[in-house]
Input
Amino acid sequence: MQISLSHFLIVGALLFCFGLVTVTTRRNAVGVLMGVELILNGANVNFAAFNHYVVGGVSGQIFALFVIVLAAAEAAVGLAIVLAVFQTFKTIDVRYADLMRE
Amino acid sequence: MTQTTGKLLGWILGTALAIGFVVVMGQLAIGPAAQSMVPAPATSAGLTEVLFYVLAGVTIAGAAGVALSHNILYSAIGLLMALLGAGSLYVFLSADFLAVAQLLIYIGGVLVLVLFAVMLTNRITEITVSNTSLGLWGGLMLFVAVAPVLLAVALVTPWATITPAAAAHTTETIGDALLSRWLLPFEVASLVLLASLVGAVAIARKEIKAD
Output
């Protein structure tokens, strides 16, 4: 049985779904960031798969590279914010970081 | 000890389930139409296919571990599995440079950052309660709502596929493209990295007040 485009799309879709579940259900801020990484990886798998099976060339791979770069920047800034939240609230539960409410 | 064995068994079972799921969905993806179109080579699953299913299963099981684990450290290990699996899937798509970049940046950089944040922000003694979540039902409902749509789109849509080019080294091509066609995004990405570096340091440092 040949491996086709759909196989990779299934893997990407499942990565996205689990990432979405992680982002929406976690109360730990680091866990939420992990979910974002999963979503970006799902998109990356799709980029590489479409590049290989539909487009050809390397444009899709370069898009995926930019996604990786932006994910690294996002992780650095996001975890710095998590550390700042921890210093302020002494917890990283996202329910308690509500100073700007009301 | 028995708890550890149980956890290990759970992970192995999860991986096996994920592999089986991908196999079944793959059979669906080939489908009757494609089988009638292709003159049915009817070869047994080669090494490449088996390897693909194992790696896809590891990826999905890792993602499920991130979403479902009660301990934030196990979530981090699940993220490691998912990132490793996704990175090795790139090899099947003849994206060798992308695979190495994933290995270096995600696993060498982002995952270590995440582990640092876990160690710095959780009081290690109460780590078992560190990863409370909103409950399984909300997540399950969301999963049931989103996953079938995406899977249906992936399976039903008649993608205009080409015959994939033979595997070749992509590093040289990517380097050329980055410095010619994609030069402006490349430079902007370097600016973004610089800004995020400075921003991360500025946000995370402790204020030292000189009274």
Q: What stands out?
A: Chain A touches chain B through 74 residues (CB under 8 Å). Chain A is about 75% helix and 0% strand. Chain A has one domain: 5-93.
